[in-house]
Design brief:
The protein has three domains: 104 residues, Sandwich (Immunoglobulin-like), CATH 2.60.40; 105 residues, Immunoglobulins (Immunoglobulin-like); 77 residues, Sandwich (Immunoglobulin-like). The strands form six sheets. Strands 1, 3, 4, 6, 8, 10 and 11 form a seven-stranded mixed sheet that branches. A five-stranded mixed sheet has the order 16-18-14-12-20, with no helix packed on it. A five-stranded mixed sheet has the order 13-21-19-15-17, with no helix packed on it. Strand 3 and strand 4 form a beta hairpin. By secondary structure, it is mainly beta. It is 6% helix and 53% strand.
Length: 355
């Protein structure tokens, strides 16, 4: 019989190896694949809002908490469905591990690029976390901004026979979508607006041409307001109106004529003068804006040998909102009887076109 003697240091090594094998076996048997009943995931839903406007707020992150209620470590896979469209990415880990009776957090990142359509969008994605489905709803909003220049128009002084035009430019600033525009004018029908298009997008501004076709004015100052609106969502218009004014020239109009009085006093010895002459002015006023032409004639003599002469019988131009005098000379013979005499002067007034 052969007896093998094992040294003490070898015995200790064998014992340590045996213990290590038991521990390793225990560890391998304490980690399992997560099932739906092994974990809890919260919250069950996340909402994400992304916007494109003056600046792009196009990135967001969401996180979910995994709770392991088991006495052993669990692991699992994660997947996303459906596949996001090309302009959206939803990224995160493909698996997780959570220790016994512990929690862990998984995070996902959403990044969006502008959609070619510029239409507001909503997508819902399902993330499977170890058999537990959670959802993420992504809402993407596209903003637009309309600018109008200039914000006011002054046609200035406009004769009735003129048809002046002025223009305004409507532009979109952000460039994410096309904006449908609507317009209207408050005021009378003398002003019309013609748009080159009823939709505006960045790089393709719309021109508005205003044409003024005056009618017969009864005053000078006229104004209109051009209003802009849109049915396109999330759009601001600044400003949303254009103020337009014009000073319409009124036609020539003869103002009221007043009677004039003249006293002639015979203050020379009888026979020393053959007649007495005195001058008098009749004021003629043009209450319109267009030039008025005036002529005159004596339609009734005073009688008694007294005559009325028009010193300058040529037509006179009276500009708008001004007046001129018609100079008359009254001649009375030295032997005219004392008394009161009346004569009449006829005033003819017309515009430059003879109306």
């Amino acid at each position: 019989m052969v007896i093998w003697m094992i040294p003490d240091w070898a015995k200790n090594l064998l014992v340590k190896l045996a213990i290590g094998t038991v521990i390793l076996f225990a560890l391998l048997n304490s980690m399992g694949t997560a099932g739906a009943s092994d974990i809890e995931v919260s919250p069950s839903h996340r909402d994400v809002s992304l916007t494109f406007g003056q600046s792009a707020d196009n990135t967001a992150s969401v996180s979910f908490t995994i709770t392991n209620n088991e006495n052993s470590t669990v692991s699992g896979n994660m997947g996303i469905s459906p596949t996001p469209p090309p302009h959206i990415t939803l990224t995160g880990p493909s698996s997780f591990t959570c220790g016994a009776n512990l929690t862990t957090t998984v995070q996902f990142t959403i990044v969006a690029l502008p959609s070619p359509s510029g239409e507001d969008e909503t997508y819902t994605f399902t993330i499977d976390i170890g058999g537990k489905p959670v959802t993420v709803t992504v809402t993407i909003t596209y903003h637009a901004k309309i600018e109008v220049s200039p914000v006011s128009i002054d046609f200035g002084r406009v004769p009735r026979t003129y048809n002046p035009t002025e223009t305004v430019t409507i532009s979109e600033v952000y460039g994410y979508k096309t904006v449908d525009i609507r317009s209207r004018i408050s005021g009378n029908s003398w002003l019309t607006a013609t748009l080159t298009d009823d939709a505006v997008k960045k790089g393709s501004p719309v021109t508005v041409t205003f044409q003024l076709t005056p009618g017969y004015p009864d005053h000078n100052d006229y104004s209109w307001t051009f209003f802009l609106s849109t049915i396109t969502s999330h759009t601001t218009i600044s400003p949303n109106s254009v103020y337009i004014k014009a000073y319409i020239l009124m036609p020539a109009k003869l103002g009221r004529l007043y009677d004039e009085e003249l006293d002639i006093t015979f203050d020379k010895p009888k026979g020393t003068v053959s007649k007495y002459e005195r001058d008098i002015d009749v004021r003629v006023r043009n209450e319109g804006d267009e030039t008025m032409q005036v002529s005159s004639s004596v339609s009734e003599s005073p009688g008694g040998g007294i005559s009325i002469e028009i010193i300058d019988s040529h037509k006179k131009d009276v500009t708008g909102k001004s007046s001129k005098n018609i100079e008359l000379r009254v001649v009375a013979p030295y032997n005219a009887p004392e008394g009161t005499y009346r004569g009449k002067l006829h005033i003819y007034a017309e515009d430059k076109d003879g109306n």
